[in-house]
């Protein structure tokens, strides 16, 4: 048994429509979260977040702020993986939702209230709350 390290980046993409804020969620099996994926060796965390979101969902975003990171362990065969995920807040720039079926089952924009109900992990809910506070300051300017 060995411990391997993984580094991923992703984020919360938001858009405003009809005076309401929507965020992008992805579903894999029965778990709802934010789009993310592995950082390539020569890539910055920011570039990885933008690229992975587009690859997984078809949605293009522009980074507004850094939200923080989470780390956890999981098992992959006989290995223990120590994973770090870096999250960013991104403003929707364009694109149509096109889920990358090899990675995720579904991608959808939902209201912040609906996202809070759907998200599977408490840490994601904390990032959502932080993102919501930042978005409110952006919109009131």
UniProtKB/TrEMBL annotation:
Residues 4-132 form the Nudix hydrolase domain. InterPro entries: Nudix_hydrolase, NUDIX_hydrolase-like_dom_sf, NUDIX_hydrolase_CS, NUDIX_hydrolase_dom, Nudix_hydrolase_domain. Keywords: Hydrolase. Pfam families: NUDIX. The keyword Hydrolase applies. GO terms for biological process: AMP biosynthetic process; ATP biosynthetic process. The keyword Hydrolase applies. SUPFAM superfamilies: Nudix. Belongs to the Nudix hydrolase family. This is 8-oxo-dGTP diphosphatase. It comes from Venenivibrio stagnispumantis.
């Amino acid at each position: 048994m060995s411990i391997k390290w993984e580094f991923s980046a992703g984020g919360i993409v938001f858009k405003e429509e009809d005076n309401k804020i929507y965020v992008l969620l992805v579903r894999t099996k029965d778990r709802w979260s934010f789009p993310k994926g592995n950082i390539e060796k020569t890539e910055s965390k920011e570039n990885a977040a933008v690229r992975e979101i587009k690859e997984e969902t078809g949605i293009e975003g522009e980074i507004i702020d850094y939200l923080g990171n989470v780390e956890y362990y999981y098992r992959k065969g006989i290995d223990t993986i120590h994973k770090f995920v870096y999250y960013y807040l991104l403003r929707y720039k364009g694109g149509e939702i096109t889920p990358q079926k090899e990675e995720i089952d579904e991608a959808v924009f939902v209201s912040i209230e609906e996202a809070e109900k759907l998200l599977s992990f408490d840490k994601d809910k904390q990032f959502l709350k932080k993102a919501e506070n930042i978005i409110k300051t952006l919109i009131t300017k």
